[in-house]
Amino acid sequence: MYKNELDKHIQNGSISNNFVLFGESDFLIDMYTEKLTNIEEASSLKFYHDEYDFNSAKAHLSQASLFGGQNILIIKSEKKVPKKDLDVFIDYCEKNPENIFVYAYYGSDHKTYTKAFSKKSTMSIRFFNPNQGEAIFSVSQVARDKHINIDNYTITHLLQIHNGDVALACNEIDKFRVYDRAITIKDIDNLVFGLAQVNIDDFIKKILNKKDFKTELQNILEHGEDEIRIVTAITTYLTQLYMFNIYIRVNGAPNALEILGYPAPKFVVDEKAALSLKFKPHTYYKLHELLLSSELKMKSSSVDKSAILLSTLIRVQKLL
Questions:
Q1: What is the CATH number of the domain that holds 221?
Q2: Which residues have C-beta within 8 Å of that of residue 284, sequence separation ≥ 6?
Q3: Model confidence pLDDT, tens digit, residues 188-240
Q4: Are residues 187 and 96 both part of a single domain?
């Protein structure tokens, strides 16, 4: 199942007591591990990566809780835990509904767990990287929990600084507790270290306007930004432009709230609307195809990611 299905089960109180969490988003895996196991007075045992020990884990679920409550077992690992081990833990949960077991798998072999436990009560959930709306919502939830007054447009700026990394953006929220007022973009630029010295949007606009971008690219890479994340940022930006393009073609004028899911300043909407109409739908298709293919190549072992990135950006400009 996927995140939205799990959310419905949580809302309806119909969740299981044993879970396998996996997928592309470490942030969501961590967030839901915490959400599913945050129970007061429960006896919890956690194993991180190489700490896992089958006998200790089995003993924890098989014994009565020391506090008279629930026993919770959490295993977080990039390596696959043997399925026969997982079956033992799941069986203990099926026999005792007071037990809770969460296996948070951070590896890349996602197919292993998609249908591995279909005959059991286990909920296997694959988490994809949040889209922009989901990312904004996640950060806004963290901000509300910490009583930080920040609107969605400012959150978008924070996410852009970290190239859409929700975990990094959420980690920054605590910094804004020094302000007893609404947080502004200027506050973020003053307090957040990321790509504040290099505006990633300006970099992308240079590429799309077929201007020389090599100095900015070198600057971004020297600040420690990863090549894959740069490609992802460009893909996200182009997806936004395509959404503007389609909406304007259908409705005649842009509406940021309906397109992006949040209101944006008029100058931002006007700029994106104008830029979006410069390219035909077929061009958007070709650009996305190129960027996704390049991202896949970069994720292969023993490749020169910088060379692939430069080649990709040159090819992007040739497609425009």
A1: 1.20.272.10
A2: 238, 241, 242, 245
A3: 877 775 444 456 788 899 999 999 998 888 878 877 678 888 898 899 899 99
A4: no
